[in-house]
Amino acid sequence: MYIMAKKKIEIELNTDDEVIERDVKPFGNASHIILPQKHKGKKATIIIKK
User: For the chain, how far is it from start to end, CA to CA, in angstroms?
Assistant: First the structure.
């Protein structure tokens, strides 16, 4: 399923939120992002930059 958004999205960050910039790595026919163990079990919002 592909979702393409052409509108502005507002994201509200709390003081506990953290912004991490990582490279997306190939993984078989898909891709993945490696994050620190401390984020295990948390929910993440991914923003793809061009």
Answer: 20
